[in-house]
Design a protein that fits this description.
The structure is a single chain. The chain is an alpha/beta fold and 349 residues long. It folds into 2 domains: 11-21 and 32-152 and 242-278, 3-Layer(aba) Sandwich (D-Maltodextrin-Binding Protein, domain 2), CATH 3.40.190.170; 157-239 and 286-347, 3-Layer(aba) Sandwich (D-Maltodextrin-Binding Protein, domain 2), CATH 3.40.190.170. The chain has 15 helices and 11 strands. The strands form 2 sheets. It has a 6-stranded mixed β-sheet with strand order 7-6-8-5-9-11. Strands 2-1-3-10-4 form a 5-stranded mixed β-sheet. It is globular, with a radius of gyration of 20 Å.
């Protein structure tokens, strides 16, 4: 598997270059004037393509009657989005399950490292299958919310400072920003993981609080870790992180039926998942070249070395997760993992 994903365009530039097909006037739906607020952090980037497009889609499909403003870091901190939605402080927000694993424990299954998911379409299919399960739906309902769609984050690689790791042993003691289950994979390697929110990673690296950070390449570009790093990995392909759009149930239920229908229609429209995937197209090819040009050393992980990573930090983490889901949260952990693996096999290409 040379990579789960073929790349992503760079941050705001990517968003600007992904075309948004205007809606035909004949396709507009009538309804009342409404305005929603959506909480997102950072700045426009590849992963926010679908969210930005959704706001445009709602406005165009309703002739300007249903509008949604994206607030970049002003409505809520990343770890407080669920609380804000639960209280009805805003109608929608971005979420990453690994930011609050105790609030959405079953959702962290998609964060498991080295899952057999090898392309965007498979990731989309597995996500939709998994989040469509009743257990997952009940988790978000506790926060008066429901999952809409995934950001389909690419597989994570690491950018670090100092002497680059030459073997598994060199990861021991490394202070690394690695979220959720990926953090546990790093812990199995002897590293010291921390779940620093994305907007705080640059400052943490700059101050020497962490030695390295795990992100998809486009996010390393967006959050400028490459400016501080001296090395980066390619081919490590740790796994994706479960992030996406989530909305307040009461606000959705109050919408007229024709507006509700737009949520489902958007996902597979050209502006939805297809545009989100398109937004990631150049990352794997262009950004590694850029990082090397900036003076970073590329640490290429071959198949044998990656298999060694997987043996230490892959299936053992799956087993630990199953046990935690079963004992701590009283879920059928094996059944949840089986949903992921069965779906991954179904959507494999």
């Amino acid at each position: 598997m040379r990579r789960l994903l073929i790349g992503a365009a760079v941050a705001a530039m990517t968003v600007a270059t992904v075309p948004f097909a205007s809606v035909n006037a004949a396709d507009t739906v009538e309804g009342p004037r409404l305005h929603w607020n959506f909480s997102l952090w950072g700045k426009p980037r590849a992963s926010s393509t679908a969210t930005i497009n959704f706001a445009k889609y709602l406005e165009e499909r309703t002739g300007g009657n249903f509008t949604m403003t994206i607030h970049w870091g002003t409505l809520s901190k990343p770890r407080a989005v669920l609380d804000g939605l639960s209280l009805g402080a805003f109608q929608g927000g971005a979420f990453c399950a690994s930011y609050y694993p105790a609030k959405l424990p079953a959702h962290t299954g998609l964060d498991l490292p080295f899952l057999p998911i090898n392309n965007f379409q498979a990731l989309q299919g597995v996500t939709e299958d998994y989040y469509g399960n009743e257990i997952l739906q009940k988790e978000t309902e506790k926060w008066n919310s429901f999952f809409h769609m995934s950001s389909l984050l690419p597989l994570y690689e690491v950018v670090g400072k100092g002497e680059p790791p030459k073997s598994l042993e060199d990861w021991k003691g490394m202070r690394i920003r690695a979220l959720g289950q990926q953090g546990k994979a790093m812990q199995k390697l002897g590293a010291v993981p921390t779940s620093v929110p994305a907007p705080d990673v640059y400052t943490s690296m700059d101050r020497g609080l962490i030695d390295a950070a795990g992100f998809a390449y486009y996010a390393h570009e967006s959050y400028r870790t490459y400016e501080l790093g001296t090395w980066f990995t390619s081919g490590l392909d740790v796994g994706s992180i479960a992030c996406g759009q989530i909305f307040n149930i009461d606000a959705f239920n109050a919408l007229p039926k024709q507006y509700q229908a737009l949520f489902g229609e958007f996902k597979d429209s050209p502006q939805g998942y297809p545009a989100q995937i398109e937004a990631y197209k150049r990352t794997e090819e262009e950004l590694p070249v850029k990082f090397v040009e900036k003076g970073l050393k590329e640490i290429k992980i071959g198949k044998a070395e990656r298999d060694a990573f997987k043996k230490v930090g892959g299936e053992p983490v799956w087993n630990d997760w199953v046990e935690q889901m079963t004992k701590e949260y009283r879920y059928d952990g094996k059944a949840l993992l089986n949903i992921l693996l069965t779906s991954a096999e179904k959507h494999a290409k």
